[in-house]
Amino acid sequence: MHARQVLVFVFPGQGSQSPGFLAPWLELPGVADRLRWASAVVGDDLVAHGTVSDAETLRDTAVAQPLIVAAGLVVLRELVQGPEQLAAVAGAVAGHSVGELTAAAATGALSPEQALVLVRERGRAMASAAAAHPTGMSAVLGGDPAEVAATLSRLGLTAANDNGGGQVVAAGELSALAALADEPPARARVVPLQVAGAFHTEHMAPAVGTLRELAAGLEPGTASVPLAANADGELVTDGGELLRRLVAQVSRPVRWDLCTEAFRRLGVTALIELAPAGTLVNLAKRQLKGIDVLALKTPADLERARTVIAEHGAAAAVPAGAGGVQ
User: Fold this and answer.
1) Which residues are catalytic?
2) Could you report the per-residue pLDDT of 216-227, keeping only the tens digit for each?
3) How far apart are CA 21 and CA 143, in angstroms?
């Protein structure tokens, strides 16, 4: 294996889910069983939400967040069987927003059960904070970065996500988002997002307190693979530090642009996005040109994923049919 090959795994955030996205995965042996176990941990029917729930149901923060984390972990285990095997093939991981919890569990910094309990309470607390005051988020695509920043500041909006490649997500009051849509910055397009609140802003402060109290009782482990953290792209392996960051990021902006920069510094040659995949691969195509990218959307993509792992990872891929979240 060429020494300069570097593979990273990335895990999407809320808004990546769509009705029925898990249905094809349930055809694989053990997947339904693992989802039922995750359902018992979070106290909701993730099998139903991943197969038959409609878009409005999936828009519910308390539904979407546990579903996305469980989906990412279940699908990952079709490729690698745990944190040690992940370390054998990956140079780093990252997750966008709630996907950072998936990434932490993938590395062993959190157990799957710890991650699922945290995401259950995170979803509930963020949904409660969102319900207290109507807020939302909109993507701002294109435009001059300085003009976009000035417009958001003038309207009292926060750049809750800086995804790089000319994509910023504005968050705040619905009236301010409406004003942004009516008069967008020059050469920019505004797209409302299907989320229930102004995530990663001061509006989520009550949820931070809830998670901090819960996290105090956890004993995280050391990550087997460095995690490029949302706040600043720093590569983190210390479990305690990761947990502190996971709590704080609920009300702080996601700097995916800096995570991308961390991958570039590592010399990334391939990137695999776990289901529900697509969003982060599209960003990588624009910002990490020339690397091998794969959105792992359905089991039909597994063969290609194993090829990418074999070509860019530090060890051979897992044989077809191996794996399973315990």
Assistant:
1) 97, 200
2) 999 999 999 999
3) 32
pLDDT, average across residues 109-115: 97
How many other CB atoms sit within 10 Å of the CB of residue 248? 15
End-to-end, the C-alpha distance of the chain in Å comes to 31
The Cα–Cα gap between 105 and 246 comes to: 12
- Residue from 237, 244, 234, 243 nearest 222 by CA: 237
What confidence category does residue 314 fall into, taking pLDDT thresholds of 50, 70 and 90? Answer: confident
The percent of residues in the chain predicted with pLDDT above 70, rounded, is 95
**Could you tell me the maximum CA-CA distance found in the chain, to the nearest angstrom?**
55
Helix (H) or strand (E) holding 88: helix 83-89
Domains with residue ranges and CATH for the chain: 7-130+201-312 (3.40.366.10), 135-192 (3.30.70.250)
How many CB atoms are closer than 10 A to CB 153? Answer: 11
21, 65, 68, 69, 324 from 48: Cα distances, Å: 11, 15, 13, 15, 20
Instruction: Give me the residue label for tokens 């990021």.
Output: 249
Query: Average pLDDT over the chain, rounded to whole?
Result: 93
The pLDDT tens digits of the residues spanning 26-66 come to 999 999 999 999 999 999 999 999 999 999 999 899 999 99
- Cα separation, 256 vs 260, whole angstroms: 6
**DSSP sequence for 17-63:** --TTTTGGGGGSTTHHHHHHHHHHHHTS-HHHHHHT--HHHHHSHHH
Q: Which two tokens stand for residue 167?
A: 């994509």
CB contact at 8 A, 73 and 108: no
pTM of the complete model beyond 0.85: yes
Encoded tokens for 128: 């409660």
β-pairing, 135-142 vs 188-192, is antiparallel
The neighbouring-strand residues paired with 166 are none
